[in-house]
Amino acid sequence: MSATVRIPTPLRKVTNGADKASVEGNSISEAIESLENIFPGIKKRICEESGELRSFVNVFVNGEDIRFSDGINTPISSGDEISLVPAVAGGKH
User: Fold this and answer.
1) 42 pLDDT band (50/70/90 cuts)?
2) Is 92 inside any structural domain?
3) Does a structural domain hold residue 57?
């Protein structure tokens, strides 16, 4: 199964400027492993050593936040679009 991962600007230094990648897998976890095979070093930027997503990284599959699904075990299908979205800190000045 092939899905597309949209890569945010802060991670593009690891991807040599690529803004998307085609990955294989049946879950977000497998897609991240596939992404790591393509761009070594990217996994440690989006996952903790335990393998769980870092708290400041939001992941969406076809616009749906995986935190409201099965998290890193969320299933993906061929043609899905996965978006990695770093959380933006905000607040009052």
Assistant:
1) very high
2) no
3) yes
Report whether 42 contacts 5 (CB < 8 A): no
The 10s digit of each residue's pLDDT in 10-35 is 999 999 999 999 999 999 999 999 99
Q: Is residue 91 part of a domain?
A: no
Give the number of domains in the chain: 1
Asked if pLDDT for residue 90 goes beyond 70, the answer is no
DSSP line for 50-75: TSSBPTTEEEEETTEEGGGTTGGG-B
Q: List the domain range (segments joined by +) for residue 8.
A: 2-86
Rounded-to-integer distance, Cα 13 and Cα 25, Å? 24
Q: What is the DSSP letter of 47?
A: B
Find the CATH number of the domain harbouring 68. Answer: 3.10.20.30
What is the pLDDT at residue 87? 81
